[in-house]
């Protein structure tokens, strides 16, 4: 397929992706799919990783969409240690969330932490770092935290 026959925009998982990028790099435009997962999807489907996304046939694009759906249901052959949602809080299943579903789930997790007044939830409420970083010299924007300056 010549370069002028490349589809400029390809829609996968409700996201418009650049058809001029190589397949794995284009797939990273979908929220929840990083470069490692994109390569895993390509290898699982037997796609040429050097091909541009716009050069793929409609059938190959359909297969990519089906694989992404399988990931979110936990039915893919990709190992579960690569999933972004292992041992889900409600179901206990391993799944890989993408797009709006991922954003919604993360928001629900944070809201749950806030509701039960967990330390992490309180830090989220206050807009402070959650993962134990120091606040004396970092995260100074917006509010006074840490040590006051001597006068």
Account of the protein in words:
- Belongs to the universal ribosomal protein uS13 family.
- One of its GO terms (biological process) is translation.
- Part of the 30S ribosomal subunit. Forms a loose heterodimer with protein S19. Forms two bridges to the 50S subunit in the 70S ribosome.
- Keywords: Ribonucleoprotein, Ribosomal protein, RNA-binding, rRNA-binding.
- GO terms for molecular function: rRNA binding; structural constituent of ribosome.
- With 151 residues, this protein is mostly helical.
- It has a domain at 3-76: Orthogonal Bundle (Helicase, Ruva Protein, domain 3), CATH 1.10.8.
- The chain is 37% helix and 5% strand.
- It has five helices and two strands.
- It has a two-stranded antiparallel ribbon.
- Helix 4 packs across helix 5.
- The longest helix is centred in the middle third of the chain and has 16 residues, at 58-73.
- The radius of gyration is 20 Å and the shape is elongated.
- The N and C termini lie far apart (71 Å).
Brief description of this entry?
By secondary structure, this protein is mainly alpha-helical.
Task: Spell out the key features of this protein.
single chain, 151 residues, mainly alpha, Helicase, Ruva Protein, domain 3, two-stranded antiparallel ribbon, 5 helices, 5% strand, Rbsml_uS13_C
Number of E-state strands: 2
Assembly type: single chain
How is the largest sheet built, in terms of strand order?
A: 1-2
Q: Poorly predicted ranges (pLDDT <50, ≥5 residues)?
A: none
The major pleated sheet works out as:
2 strands, antiparallel
Mean pLDDT: 86
Residues in β-strands, percent: 5-15%
Percentage of helical residues? 25-40%
Q: Radius of gyration, Cα only, in angstroms?
A: 20 Å
N to C succession of SSEs: EEHHHHH
Helix/strand class? mainly alpha
Region (Disordered): 131-151
Keywords: Ribonucleoprotein, Ribosomal protein, RNA-binding, rRNA-binding
InterPro entries: Rbsml_uS13_C, Ribosomal_uS13, Ribosomal_uS13-like_H2TH, Ribosomal_uS13_archaeal, Ribosomal_uS13_CS
GO molecular function, one term: structural constituent of ribosome
